[in-house]
Amino acid sequence: MPESFLVQNKIKFGASTWFFQEQPVITALQKIKKVGFKAAEIWMEHILKTGEGLDKIKSAAEQLDLDISLHGTSYDINLTSINKGIRKESHKQAEEAIIMGRRINARVVVLHPGRLSSSKGDKKEYWEMLLDSFAFIDRAAGREGVEVTIEAMEKRPREIYVMPEDMEYMLNREWQNIKLTFDIADSYTVMEPVEYLKRIRKNWICHVHLSDGSPGTTHLPLGNGNIDIDSALKALTTFYNGLVIIEGYVPGNGKEVVRGNFNYLKKHGWVD
Ligand SMILES: [Zn+2]
What we know:
The chain is α/β, with parallel strands linked by helices. It has a single domain, classed as Alpha-Beta Barrel (TIM Barrel), CATH 3.20.20.150. It is 44% helix and 17% strand. The chain is built from eleven helices and ten strands. The chain has helices at residues 3-8, 25-35, 44-50, 54-64, 84-103, 123-144, 164-171, 184-188, 193-199, 229-237, 254-267, and strands spanning 12-16, 39-43, 67-71, 109-111, 148-151, 178-183, 205-210, 212-214, 217-220, 243-246. The strands form two sheets. An eight-stranded parallel beta barrel has the order 1-2-3-4-5-6-7-10, surrounded by four helices. Strands 8-9 form a two-stranded antiparallel sheet. Strand 5, helix 7 (164-171) and strand 6 (178-183) form a beta-alpha-beta unit. The radius of gyration is 18 Å and the shape is globular. The structure holds zinc ion (ZN). Zinc ion is lined by residues 71, 74, 112, 151.
């Protein structure tokens, strides 16, 4: 990688605290910093699991000089569930994520889009529900003064927010506070990430997730899959200067995996 990329590159690389989910959030932040990252994505599930105070988390991040993003809860919830109780709870937790994001001073709050409850469902109904969910989220984000970014998902049976056309349908509207999280490994489940980037509007992207992937497996450590990581990052640097967050929890092996990912980025000239 030529040195010029590093000089021009204003991207800040970070890691997900979920790598260290067995430990407190603040310990995770310390470890991510110690490896050399400049940012961290805190998983809301992590905060809910340990019960650490939001003020303490906020000041720990400030002291460590880490830029923070917050990933809202995703397990077992679905904004477009046909089960009304689940749907209501999913909206409640999305709103809680937005409030939490403001309280810990997160640059962005990442939320998952809805998905089908059943693979036999009528997709049109789900798109209608998803539009309602986006409107709800856009209002909540406006109230709290937070930027929300909805993640483009990997291709798997019940996901609906996957392809560039899906982003076009949902994002080419008058949202005030909703943008896109581009996940390099998720995009690879449908096409080369560089090709995917060509097909979406650059100004939608305000957050990026990074991991490697191979056909059939997503979120591998960098260098362990088939994705052309350098080309994807090079394409991003032409227009993007936000956070790039490494993902890919491996049970009990957080420290080695986070360090391995950092070393990969260093070897390829993306971090110093
Ligand atoms: Zn996610």
